[in-house]
Amino acid sequence: MIQKQVIYLLVLIIIGNTITVDTTVHCDCSELRSQDCQFSKYCYWNDNYCQSYPNKCAIFTTQSQCTPSLTNYLCKWDDNSCVSHLYKCDEFSSNSDCPCYWNLDNECAEFKGCSSYDENNCPASQGCVYKISECQAEDYIDCSDQTLATCSGKQGMFSACAVNNDNECDSYSLFSECSDLNNFKTKCVEFGCKFENNECQKIECEDLSIENCTSVNIDTETKMLCVVQQQKCVEAQNTNHLNIDSCYMSTNGNYKWIGSCVQCESLVYSILLTYISLFLVVYL
């Protein structure tokens, strides 16, 4: 098990008086008391101790839970237990189970080109579109050649066209961060950001309602804690607002409850099945 020692740069980043937590790690199971242990999907309570599962698939305890689709194609039921398994595309014999691409030969396989698929299986993720009765490569356009009335569609697999703040048709990345959309006010809001002072900015605690005042994302791996004070949502300066029921979960498992909500001394990397499942099934 790969382990992160609790160092402020890796476990809990303190920026000024604000608190951010690392969403890619969680407390080592051995540190947790019963309450937090039961909250954790990585640990289980056994003989008055919190222990980690011998393997990540062991969290699925029945055959009905340990299916390829429910475990993001990382686990398999074998010999009355759920174990890790690296699936390959050709292990699947039906369209409904296939995590890769179901082609005209009724095979689950790696991508072969747009013409290899019917209307129901034409993969947009590979730049394909079904038109004129066949699956074919999408026709990309040059955004700069479009008028305001025709400013839509894609310029490439990962870019599209939209009217910018200068009232011109321009391209933007489909994977843009907030700061990448300064010239696209409408898209800024669509991407879950806010447009303020002529800039596309990340949502901050003060932008949240009291009902939703929990945390905001700093980046894909980090979030900042928020708290309600004087009927306003503000950045949390400590964890005093968290209790035995909210401490562990609200900090993404970075903190534990021992009468107060404190940072864990040792963290381990979380196995995020969702992020790696596509790599395993498509490229192996």
From TrEMBL:
<feature type="signal peptide">
    <location>
        <begin position="1"/>
        <end position="20"/>
    </location>
</feature>
<keyword id="KW-0732">Signal</keyword>
<protein>
    <recommendedName>
        <fullName>Transmembrane protein</fullName>
    </recommendedName>
</protein>
